[in-house]
Amino acid sequence: MNGKQSTRTLPAGQELKQERAIQTRAQVLTAAAELLSAKGYRNTSMQDVADRVGMTKGAVYFHFRSKEALAVAVVQHHYGQWPNVAENIRASGLGPLDTVEELLNRAATAFQKDPVMQAGARLQLERPLIDTELPQPYVDWTTLLTQLFAEAESAGELRPGVSPEAAARTVVGAFFGMQHISDTLTHRADLHGRWGETRDILFHSLRAGRSAEHA
Ligand code: LUB
Fold first, then answer.
1. CA of 106 to the centre of ligand 1 (A)
2. Ligand 1 midpoint to CA 138 (Å)
3. What is the pLDDT of residues 154-165, one digit of tens each?
4. Cα of 162 to ligand 1 centre, how many Å?
5. 67 and 96 share a domain?
6. How many domains does the chain have?
7. Contact 73, 29 (CB under 8 A)
8. pTM reported for the whole predicted model
9. Nearest of 111, 112, 126, 117 to residue 33 by alpha carbon
10. Residue that finishes a domain, picked among 49, 71, 93
């Protein structure tokens, strides 16, 4: 046995191949998200995805074994980045409540601009059409925000009597409804305005009042 040949290190050629496969998979996912966000699940075929990404249908199936698997991957991807984004914002020095606000500011931008976010939201609404289990909606965001609101409570930033879980559920519900209405009425053109209103009203009631205010 040769100790130098660890299982982690592939020969240079294979590593390159793997790297290329990861890139191709990401291109397929992006093309699928663009189609799914615009046309929905029923009206998007694997052939459409292949045409958009300039590959054969067989090559697309190599990366995703079914249209259902592709939908699951898009929805997973649309949740996947947010815990890291939250950590980065927190690490930049913002307090927990400011972190929630900034995180959702960025989510608002992403729902307006990023096909993966838009496709994820659309696919969640189309769950009954999709013949597989998608990730449960709302729970990831609720868990993430509950942690931040719990930190806010410990730091004395949360209005006394507000539970972190209730705050998280309320904010997720309001954000979800806000972006859905904005999508339905304006294709999300007014999303930043609507999010600004929702955010200011919600956080006014979530933040602990400054003690000097009542003096
Ligand atoms: C959110 C959507 C759209 C939460 O968590 C989810 O599943 C959501 C799509 O299903 O908004 C936004 C904080």
1. 13
2. 5
3. 999 999 999 999
4. 22
5. no
6. 2
7. yes
8. 0.91
9. 117
10. 71
Extract the residue ranges of the chain whose pLDDT is less than 50: 1-5, 212-215
Q: Which two tokens mark 191? A: 């999303």
Give the contacts of 24 (CB within 8 A, at least 6 positions apart): 55, 59, 63
Shared domain for 156 and 125, answered yes or no, is yes
Give the span between the Cα atoms of 83 and 91, in whole angstroms: 12
What is the position in ligand 1's atom list of the atom closest to the CA of 141?
Answer: 5
Domain range spanning residue 155? Answer: 76-213
User: For a substitution probing ligand 1, which of 175, 178, 180, 191 has the most ligand atoms within 8 Å of its CB?
Assistant: 175
Residues 164 and 185 in one domain: yes
Pocket of ligand 1 (CB under 6 A): 107, 121, 124, 137-138, 141, 172, 175-176, 179
Protein residue with its CA nearest to atom 1 in ligand 1:
176
Residues 194 and 101 in one domain: yes
